Amino acid sequence: MEKTLLSIVLILIFTKIGGIISRKLKMPEVLGALISGVILGPVVLNIVQYDNNIKLLANLGVIMLMFLAGLETNVEEFKKSGLSAFIIAVAGIILPLVLGTISAYMFFNNFWENLFVGVILTATSVSITVETLKELGKLNTRSGINILGAAVIDDVLGLILISVVLAVAQTSSSNSGSLGVLSILYVLVKIVLFCILSIVGVIYIPKILNKFSEYTKPGRELLTFSIAFAILIAFIAEELGIASITGAYIAGLILSSLTHKEYLERNVKAISSGFLSLIFFASVGIESNLKGINLEVIYITLTMFIIAVVGKIIGCGGAAKLLKMTTSESIQIGTGMISRGEVAIITANIGLQKGIISEEIFLPTLIVVILTTIITPILLKLAFSHRIEKSV
Questions:
Q1: pLDDT at residue 387 in the model
Q2: Is this model's pTM higher than 0.85 or not?
């Protein structure tokens, strides 16, 4: 127990220092936390081990992270994002999924592992994009609005896709023949029912709860019951064979329309960003075996990186162009969707824990997340520069 307590202390100190340095460099704090994990792990200092205690806290960190993501989603903006954002999001999921799956056959022959590579590459993280757009004063332009709308839809569809692939992959590996087909159909029925109940919950539960808002004050009771609700929905999702992160995100979406949302969001963020999420990101870095880097891993990383960039620029940008947007707007939208982030890391981590992907995929995913995070603000500033807009 003493060793675990010391590990937590080291993780919190190192990740927070790493986050401060990342922020000074105008990069997300996630990068600092990941690199801190690598430094603390077996690759560099070897003073923190990824044991069951750290694993439990890391898993709670993932649930809190996705719960917070759901809370921070503006459901009304999601409804208003419209058909254009939906089409851009779908195109930005399909192209990386197809290209990622096909290209993975260059290195592996396992269908489910290859499909999971495609799923990892569908993720989008717009936190760095939003900061860049704010800095440029372009957040409320047509490009900015479509990027934000498409990113939210991308998150929801991506989580459903992760749940479907994860559930079907695990079911098909444990069953074969006609029994396997029936098991897969049963899993798909459960996922559809979960989606229907989630939509009903997002629409009606806040209306019921808000009726009692005048009798309740935002306080510790609300926070405790909300966290319990998030963990419960994550548990139900896991029991149904759906990823627990999907359940946590849905719980956040349901509570995002509450009257006391701001209180809830502020306090959940303090618990997540100040404690549990730091342990999760550090644990990913600790798990990463950088000593396993070889020529094949470098080739996989380059392939994934190219698809990560091209898939979003052509997929999202191409869809924007088909929607009669200008060429410069199409490039801006495609560029704004490049950055991968927490969801890609979480997806790869789940795949590794469930035995669907190997370390050879996990390590390139981390590198791709870091690279896309670094290049997105650079490319976005170029895409919005007057010189580039004029030349286009």
A1: 58
A2: no
199: domain range?
Answer: 57-391
| Assigned domain for 29 exists | no
User: Quick one: 338 exposed, middle or buried, by C-beta within 10 A (0-12, 13-18, 19+)?
Assistant: buried
Would 23 be classed as within a structural domain?
A: no
CA-CA distances (angstroms) from residue 361 to 97, 100, 146, 264, 288?
Answer: 15, 12, 31, 36, 11
Half-sphere exposure of 2 (CA within 13 A, CB side): 0
Q: What is the mean pLDDT of the chain?
A: 86
- The reply to whether 38 falls in a domain is no
User: Looking at the domain assignment, is residue 325 inside a domain?
Assistant: yes
Supply 197's token pair.
Answer: 């109940």
CATH number of the structural domain spanning residue 366: 1.20.1530.20
Which residues, other chains included, contact 126 with Cβ-Cβ below 8 Å and sequence gap of 6+? 147, 148, 151, 336, 337, 339
Number of domains in the chain: 1
